[in-house]
Design a protein that fits this description.
Layout lengths: L1 E10 L2 E11 L4 E5 L6 H8 L7 E6 L2 E2 L4 H7 E4 L11 H11 L5 H11 L15 H13 L5 E5 L7 H17 L1 E6 L2 H7 L2 E6 L2 E6 L1 H9 L3 E6 L6 H6 L4 E8 L2 E6 L6 H10 L4 E6 L4 H20 L18
Parallel strand pairs: 3-8, 3-9, 6-7, 7-8
Antiparallel strand pairs: 1-2, 1-4, 4-5, 9-10, 11-13, 11-14, 12-13
The structure holds adenosine-5'-triphosphate and magnesium ion (MG).
Magnesium ion binds next to helix 1.
Length: 330
């Protein structure tokens, strides 16, 4: 379990993260998404006890980060952004060394186990310096799993892995995530969409959205676009659809296929369906289009960037928006 409240980190004048509040429960995989410089690594370093926050509090695996950071570190597995491996050691030496540091019981067996889990056993005797980037990433992951941590914090775990390994790691994380708490950062939105129970989108050090991948896409899309398909060429249907209330535009995509933009308000699908069927057309499909997480992400981070640009150029603020209400607090 991870519980974070008002977490803030300043590097000199720069506020890297600003009053983050979120949680990750046991059995949950939470994805941390955001563009470069959003504050993902900063947050993860704080949560793993490698760096204190400037403000705010957090508990990890039930222990307070500020007052019980040793207890936290015992219960957290951390895959840092740049895995600090010891190049002069072999894979098995390195893992054994880390296991000893963490006082892992039945060290040899456990090291063998994690090497199997991440498929690196056949390279056990290779020097870490001779491993490819993806193989090194696997060793980093093995290291994070060694002490069977309750909480896994993984900074871009898929980075550098080939597609086959990405599938393996996803499978592994689902297994681990069923009983433990996993927080991972990624730029690859498809991974978050597939893997995460919940997604936190962070931009400029602040949370801009948080929900399940499905609800995020429904929420942002607002269910605004519908795809309709009827059997045959749909002759005459366009005029009927355009006469309906609650639709802002109707476009013919192909014979019998229409793209409908709906106005905000009640769901118009029942009305559309009864119009189609009532008019004697055969309804093949009526589907609400969902935005991918990628589209949402771009939309959200663009809105923020535009707002920031507007503030800088002194453009008038939208009604109800308090000037500088956020920036003054950092
Ligand atoms: N040690 C540091 N000293 C000063 N500024 C820092 C330091 N570490 C990070 N920052 C700044 O804090 C902000 C957040 O950085 P962070 O590394 O947390 O982003 P990130 O979301 O992990 O980005 P990326 O996707 O590129 O890994 C950035 O503006 C970065 O330049
Ligand atoms: Mg980072």
């Amino acid at each position: 379990m991870i519980q974070v409240e008002g977490l803030t980190k300043r590097y000199g004048e720069r506020t890297a993260i600003n009053k983050l509040t979120f949680h990750a429960d046991k059995g949950e995989i939470v994805g941390f998404l955001g563009p470069n410089g959003a504050g993902k690594t900063t947050t993860m370093r704080i949560l793993t006890g490698y760096m204190p926050p400037s403000e705010g509090k957090a508990s990890v695996a039930g222990f307070d980060l500020l007052t019980q950071s040793l207890e936290v570190r015992k219960r957290v597995g951390y895959l840092p952004e740049n895995v600090p491996l010891y190049p002069e050691m072999s894979v098995v030496q390195y893992l054994d060394f880390m296991a000893e540091l963490r006082q892992v019981p039945n060290r040899n067996e456990r090291v063998d186990e994690v090497m199997e889990v991440v498929h690196i056993a056949d390279r056990a005797e290779s020097f870490v310096s001779n491993l490819s980037k993806g193989l090194r990433q696997r060793v980093g992951l093995a290291q994070a799993l060694l002490h069977k941590p309750e909480v896994l914090i993984l900074d871009e775990p898929m980075e550098g892995l080939d597609p086959q390994q990405q599938i393996e790691v996803k499978r592994l994380l689902r297994e681990v995530g069923a009983a433990q708490t996993v927080m991972l950062s990624t730029h690859i939105l498809a991974h978050a969409q597939e893997l995460c129970d919940r997604v936190i989108i962070i931009n400029g050090g602040q949370i801009v959205a948080e929900d399940t991948p499905d609800r995020l896409s429904a929420q942002i899309a607002g269910g605004r676009r519908l795809q309709l398909e009827v059997d045959g060429d749909g002759d005459g249907l366009l005029a009927e659809l355009r006469a309906l209330p609650g639709l802002s535009s109707v476009r013919v995509v192909a014979d019998g296929r229409f793209e409908i933009e709906t106005a905000p308000g009640p769901d118009v699908r029942p009305l559309i369906a009864s119009t189609v069927v009532g008019g004697g057309w055969k309804l093949l499909e009526l589907r609400r289009e969902r935005l991918s997480l990628e589209e949402i992400f771009i939309q959200l981070t663009r809105e923020e960037a535009e707002a920031a640009a507007a503030a800088e150029t002194g453009a008038p603020l939208a009604e109800g928006q308090a000037p500088g209400s956020d920036s003054a607090a950092g």
